[in-house]
Amino acid sequence: MNDVDSVRHVNARRPMVLAAWAFAMAWLVLAGLILLSDSSGSAFNVGRAKFDQDVFHLKVITKFAQELPTPGLRDYLSATTPGYHLVLAAVKRLFGAPELALRLFAALCTAGLVGVLVWVSAKAANHHQQRSAGWWWALTPALPVLCSSYVVQSGMYLLPDNAAWLMVALVMLLSLNLARTASVDEVCRPRRLDRWIVPSALLLMALVFTRQIHIWAAAVVWVGALVACAKLDQTPPWSASSVARTIEHARALLRALTNRAVICAVLATAPAFAIVGGFVFLWGGLTPPTFRASTNPGAISGAVDATTVTGTSPATAVLVLALVGLFGLFFAGYWLASSLSQSPGTKDRNEALIATIKAGGLGGFIAGVLSAIPTTTWLSPSRKGALWEITRKFEGDSTLAGIRLPRLVVADHVNLVMWLLAVVGGVVLGICWRAADARARWVLAAGLIAFTAANCAQALSWQRYLEPMVLLWWVLMIASLRWDAPARLWRWAWVGPVLLAGLLATVTFGQFGT
């Protein structure tokens, strides 16, 4: 790279860095004002987040701070691995930090998450020469994450969620960069793995030491290495259908399974599995014993006997599809423009439209079949969140503005509203599969599937466990689209995520003081 190219590269990156810093600092200022207001006795608090902090996490942090340097990790009142609590316990022990100072750490983690996602969006726009549409246009996909009540709450109180989401985003970014790297031959040499796989493995260890359920992210590392070594063609011939290209790429991936780099990637994630396995052995279960005995919220107050919520929740997969579809509609300007973009010419545009309809139809059909299998009617307390509450209104005995809502349930098994939203999710995913970069889509699909499987393996189908990941996933998906459409197709794409951010912000601020 000559001096002129270096200057251009630096100048191109400067707006990305400035945008990321601006959004991160804006969040920090907002969080600081809220925390100060809360500490002065105002009504700026959120019931659920404050409850989790005071009843669970703050007690664990205080306990560990008193027990350092030998904290009791065998049993404590939190569902998560102790990484987050140990860091804050050390800060509290060494510096005598008050609660407010500790809460600023959560705000810093959230600022890092926001900064990373904004940087991803800005980098994608810069790489694909979409700067003419305005930086604000490129940054809007990250806004809904910043406005989600679950992200905001975790950024205000001592919850480990956002620290974990930050590491999830970084692991997925490293794997996406590995999958899309141009120098595939160099990546597949084990001596070059330190650039991509080793950092991913270290982050994965820190991630599962913070929240053990995120062991699913190992699949992202594996697929990233697998895609890089499979040498997938990123620009397949348009004459081949999406299904034919997918089959061709799947065969290439199967042939690459025995590549040394893939094997090294699997071995590199083994320590993360050892961490999770060690804690499961230490606790005698997936969570510490004290927490297992108090997973029924009524047991906290003594209203009922302590019980353990165990089992699986296949309906979580339907909820994930529904959230992907509902949020994805607001990003339609991006994935539709990408899917409909082809080489110039009426014939090509018509072919792109037909291929888009086929991809959406196939995705919707698969989602419709899968979403009819698990029970998606209301089950409390294992199902919580806005979407479950909305669909519950159509199960009988509910009114809106004095009008009785119809009962949309089939055989006391399938809630048609939830099923329809899941089908929309399948349609959107089918089109995104066609529109996304041929390598990145495998990593993003692996991440979404593995994340869904991990959450289906536990009994609680709560929206707060899923929404941040779905919004984060959408930022990465938008950045991974083929952005070769004419500028006019992208011009109004920013409206959708801005509307979504406004709706989420309304919900978020409506919860303050509850």
Characterize the structure shown.
- It is a single chain.
- The chain is mainly alpha-helical.
- Helices cover 67% and strands 2% of the residues.
- It has helices at residues 3-39, 47-67, 83-95, 99-127, 135-139, 143-147, 149-156, 161-180, 184-187, 197-210, 218-230, 242-255, 260-268, 270-283, 289-292, 297-301, 315-330, 332-340, 346-371, 386-392, 416-435, 440-456, 467-479, 487-490, 495-510, and strands at residues 383-384, 399-400, 403-404, 409-410, 414-415, 461-462.
- The strands form three sheets. The protein has a two-stranded parallel ribbon with strand order 1-6. Strands 2-3 form a two-stranded antiparallel sheet.
- A hairpin with a 3-residue loop joins β4 (409-410) and β5 (414-415).
- The longest helix has 37 residues, at 3-39.
- The protein is globular.
Number of helices: 25
Query: What strand line-up does the widest sheet have?
Result: 1-6
Average residue-wise pLDDT:
82
Shape: globular
Helix content: 55-70%
The main pleated sheet reads as: 2 strands, parallel
Number of strands: 6
Structure class: mainly alpha
Strand content: under 5%
| Radius of gyration, CA atoms, in whole angstroms | 23 Å
Low-pLDDT stretches are: 1-12, 297-307
**First-to-last CA distance:** 57 Å
List keywords for this structure.
514 residues; mainly alpha; two-stranded antiparallel sheet; globular
Summarize this structure briefly.
This protein is mainly α and 514 residues long.
Fold blueprint:
Elements: H1 3-39, H2 47-67, H3 83-95, H4 99-127, H5 135-139, H6 143-147, H7 149-156, H8 161-180, H9 184-187, H10 197-210, H11 218-230, H12 242-255, H13 260-268, H14 270-283, H15 289-292, H16 297-301, H17 315-330, H18 332-340, H19 346-371, E1 383-384, H20 386-392, E2 399-400, E3 403-404, E4 409-410, E5 414-415, H21 416-435, H22 440-456, E6 461-462, H23 467-479, H24 487-490, H25 495-510
Parallel strand pairs: 1-6
Antiparallel strand pairs: 2-3, 4-5
Helix pairs in contact: 1-4, 2-3, 4-7, 4-8, 4-23, 7-25, 8-10, 8-11, 8-22, 10-14, 11-12, 11-13, 11-22, 17-21, 17-22, 17-23, 18-21, 19-21, 22-23
